[in-house]
Amino acid sequence: MTQKNGVSRVLVVGLVIVVLVAAIVSVSLLTRHPTPTTTPSSVSTTSSTTTTTSTTTTTSTTSLISVSNSSLVVEEGSQPDSLDPAVTFETPGWEVVDQVYQGLVAPNGTSVTTYVGVLAANWSVSSDGMTYTFYLRKGVHFSNGDPFNAYVEWFSVYRSLIMNQAPEFILGQNLAYTNGVNFTINASILNSINYFDPSPQNLSVMEYPYQSVQVIGPYTIAFHLGYGYNGDYPFSSFLATLTTPLSFAVDPRVVEEHGGVVANQTNAWMETHAVGTGAYELKSWIPGESVTLVKNPNYWGNNLPPSQWNYAIRPAIINTITIYYKSASARIADLKSGVAQMIEAPDTDYSVLKSIPGVNVTILPIIFGSSQNIFYVYMDPSFTPFQNLLVRKAISYAIDYQGLIKTVLDGLGVQYIGPVPPGFPYYHRATAGLQNYTYNPVKAAELLAQAGYQATLPNGTVLNPKGMPFPAVNFLYDSDSATQTYTAQIITQELQAIGIPAKPSPLTSQGYYGVIDATGNSTEYPMGLSYYSEDYTASIDYVTALVEDDMAGTSAYYNATVYNWTVQAAITSNPQLEAELFANITRAMYNQYWFIWLFVPYFLAIHTDNIAGIIPNPAGSAMGYFMFYSDVYFT
């Protein structure tokens, strides 16, 4: 499984220490896809629709008739980076956090554009798209018995913003701990409030209207957009950002008992422990070995009538989930022997996996591959030869895309045109009329010669022999990634064949990310492989990252017109306009050749035939393709 993203966006902001003035009435601080086709014989399914102002959500409700007391063994390649919702930024961490903690909303089954309530019973959106008001469920409590309410949610969101860890930008686009004028929340304030019996002074802070997160009542909370770095604009994918761990409910009493909130710092206890409102609770995490989850016996969803369940809040069926972290060969061996019922494995093992009796191996729709990785070649604009459009265009013709897919991915991948990833909303409309970049080494050599450089045809003929020899260029890739290693070896050979002396330049993952995530240009590695994977399931996530991030791994790309189109796409609620803007962005980037779009690998779902109940969604981190283990059962 992969990091949640290839190039990360981190907003670094300073905290202003403020002092609460006692006995205030109005606070003034010193600074401002299709649904599953099968259902278990022991389960009956009904449907209900919840409608609120500006919001309609369809939820499936499931009535459990009988269950099997059972244990599920899952095996993957990488362990969690953290169990703290404010910190984790990799798929294995989100996988565990999604089972133990809960947020206000979740994707609606297999949908990537609609949502169901989790801790929120329903919600409304203001006509200008700037305020989202959530009406919270009553009777929700953490596994230790502490109650959930609007005050707890207020704390949880501001905690993520103030801790300011790698995924903070997901919320920080639209929310901030300060209004920039007369209101600022800091760690001391968060640590001083009683969230289960707030004083009038506490309430005056949480109910202050001119802030990002406002408590309206004990079970009503409003999010006011416009205070984050996106500026005073609505954000059409705001609900998608709330499906990520950053806004999940965290017990303030537990945090306070284990060090409290500290600005710009992690909490060591929270990184290795978990107390949430979810259907599972953490039994153990043995670093480097396993995570074990068990049914939460005090789960609040147990008290709901089945008619009020949806897939995101129903009680768990399987008693114990144990996730082991092993090599690919060990995982496949355990699947064969029956030790494991679900495993994660690369596409290159597809044929082997398909030959195992009693095992279901499904190639998921390409949107699941896109949510994991879209690969491309980046080029540094400060490297003089790359400033020539003819050179960049020549490189696009020098690469055998279909050969890469066949050789590197065993044919299990697709070529694509970015930045909207294939399978995501608007992809086909964004790429209408465009053809994938094509392999034509003759054309590549001719363009390189036109650019003033010596070039070589496939038959060995040298074009423009009196031209400049192309300077040597380091081609960066992640040596810890088999996909990148194999791809880089092939591409550098293809570039060398036309007269570009590209040198394979491997770095381990840590060094690799240090280069591609660095702001600005990379003079040492002006060319290489990069990728992006979703932070939240929305096309704008990819477009924003690749258009607005001034990083080496995104070619330090900036175009004022494309940037303005991106801003408009982020704020519009008009699907037709959003599609047109994505098409404009796609065509502009296509013709500029700063990104050489390569391929998207397919993603495999692998489990024994007696596993059912999985509801695939690309937002899911469980095995990389579904949200909740609580829906899974044995047939």
TrEMBL record:
Highest taxon, organism lineage: Archaea
Recorded GO CC terms: ATP-binding cassette (ABC) transporter complex; periplasmic space
Pfam families given in the database record: SBP_bac_5
InterPro entries in the record: Peptide/Ni-bd, SBP_5, SBP_5_dom
Transmembrane spans: 12-31
Region (Disordered): 34-60
GO MF entries: peptide transmembrane transporter activity
Gene Ontology terms: biological process: peptide transport
Keywords, ordered alphabetically: Membrane, Transmembrane, Transmembrane helix
Domain (Solute-binding protein family): residue spans on this chain: 115-546
Protein name: Solute-binding protein family 5 domain-containing protein
Organism annotation: Candidatus Marsarchaeota G2 archaeon ECH_B_SAG-E12
